[in-house]
Amino acid sequence: MSETTYTYSAGPDQACWHDNMGRFSFPAGQSFYGKDWELVATDLAEDYHSNHDGWEASWPLQIRIYAGGKEVARLSVEREYEPTFSAWTVSAGDTQ
Q1: Is residue 1 part of a domain?
Q2: In a domain? residue 41
Q3: What share of the chain is helix, strand, coil (3-state, %, to 5)?
Q4: Nearest Cα to 35, choosing from 57, 65, 60?
Q5: Quick check: is 83 in a domain?
Q6: pLDDT tens-digit map of 5-34
Q7: Domain with 28 in it
Q8: I need a labelling partner for 75 at 20 to 30 A (CA). Which of 14, 15, 66, 83 fits?
Q9: SS3 42
Q10: Alpha-carbon distance 75 to 73, whole Å?
Q11: 50: helix, coil or strand?
């Protein structure tokens, strides 16, 4: 018996969902969390953001999960921002 192949698509455009060329393989070692698709979708959103130009996308996006080519889940995913701060010296100032 063959193992089921899982893929996903991400985006706001209907074409990416119907075109197999717009689907991505699950990342190596992807956990299924007992088929908790919300947890899986957050991992896939990270993969899409980091490895498939997702940083350029307009979020939220829909992520669709396919098993053997058949859609098994459709979720909306929002990208959250975590602020980071940097400091640099502009002038030494009065140190006396």
Answers
A1: no
A2: yes
A3: 30, 25, 45
A4: 65
A5: no
A6: 999 999 876 656 666 668 999 999 999 999
A7: 6-77
A8: 83
A9: helix
A10: 7
A11: helix
